[in-house]
Each structure stands twice: as structure tokens, then as C-alpha cells.
Write a structure and sequence with these properties.
It comes from Ridgeia piscesae (Tubeworm). With 175 residues, the chain is α+β, with helices and mostly antiparallel strands. The chain has helices at residues 28-32, 58-61, 76-81, 84-89, 99-115, 160-167, and strands at 25-26, 44-47, 50-53, 117-122. The radius of gyration is 33 Å and the shape is elongated.
């Protein structure tokens, strides 16, 4: 059987187009190197585990642009919450987001998907190493206080537990 003519002469002759998602995985460190300040000027932004090339929007994501803080970063938390302090503390977008913030992320994903090229995925950072410090020692039990003496009498008052034990009765306290 002969191959269909190229370019196709009719819609029925067109080859099926299969989109293959990018297989490149970027680490957070690699993302940082693509903040637009490098020799090639590439600007990458991570969003919800995906990495987009936003170089075409350098007026927005490049130096001095209104969204420059997101260049070369995982912007999931920042775009979801617009809380830049929280975004800077996060190492990745693994935080639990509220439903409202998840909707914000989906909105941004749609915008990025329509406007910018998806170039890969964000590689999850390895889990933190187990703590090498010794486990915290339990605090020693609190010291029991000595029975207090009355100011008007030299008689020592016994703690309520001691009285209950001696009399084998229940103690009721009225407030």
C-alpha cells in the first residue's frame, strides 16, 4: 500500500497527529538557571508539576516585569495564593492548597497551556534525609510538691489523693 501524498490532498488523507508530552524533567536548580538572565535569555516557570517556556512573555516574566518573581521558579504557591513570602519559603508546589487556591492554579494552567510551550515536568525534590540528631529525651516527671502548711496552724494538709487512698472514698469537688 502506498503512503498518502504529502501534503495531504484532502482531510481524509491527513496523517493522525499524536501529541507527545515533553519527557524532560527539570530540577528546581535547573529551573533557577532559566530565569532570563542567562546568555540565551530563556525563561522557564514551573506550575503544578509542569514546566513552561515563557520566554515569549519576557515583558511579563523578564527582569522588571510584573511577574518577574516567578521566572526560574516553581510558581504554583505564588500564583495560587499571591503570597510571595509563602512562595519563597516553599521548595516546591507540594503544599496542600485550599479549593479556592486549586481553582486559581487550574486557571493559570489553562492560561499557560494556551499561551506558552510546555517543555517538561518538574522533578520532585528528594525527601529530606532522616534526622541525624538524637531523639529528644523525655522530660523527667514533674516534682511533686510537698504538702503545704497553713499559715494559721502548724498542721500539714495532705494532698487530696492521699486522703482518698486512706479513706477509700471518692472525692467530690464543688465549683
Amino acid at each position: 500500500m502506498a503512503a498518502p501524498p504529502f501534503p495531504p490532498t484532502s482531510a481524509g488523507d491527513a496523517p493522525e497527529v499524536v501529541l507527545i508530552p515533553p519527557s524532560r524533567q527539570y530540577t528546581l536548580e535547573e529551573l533557577k538557571q532559566n530565569d532570563g538572565t542567562g546568555p540565551d535569555g530563556t525563561i522557564l516557570v514551573g506550575l503544578n508539576g509542569k514546566v513552561y517556556d515563557v520566554t515569549a512573555g519576557k515583558n511579563f516574566y523578564g527582569s522588571g516585569g510584573p511577574y518577574a518573581v516567578f521566572a526560574g521558579r516553581d510558581a504554583t504557591i505564588g500564583l495560587a495564593t499571591f503570597n510571595m513570602a509563602k512562595m519563597k519559603k516553599e521548595t516546591s508546589g507540594e503544599s496542600v492548597l485550599s479549593e479556592k487556591h486549586q481553582r486559581n492554579v487550574r486557571h493559570w494552567e489553562k492560561l499557560f497551556g494556551e499561551k506558552y510551550k510546555l517543555v517538561g515536568t518538574l522533578k520532585k525534590p528528594p525527601p529530606p534525609p532522616p534526622s541525624t540528631s538524637e531523639p529528644k529525651k523525655a522530660k523527667p516527671p514533674a516534682k511533686t510538691e510537698e504538702p503545704k502548711q497553713s499559715r494559721t496552724s502548724s498542721k500539714v494538709f495532705e494532698p487530696a489523693e492521699e486522703i482518698m487512698r486512706k479513706k477509700k472514698s471518692k472525692l467530690c469537688i464543688l465549683l
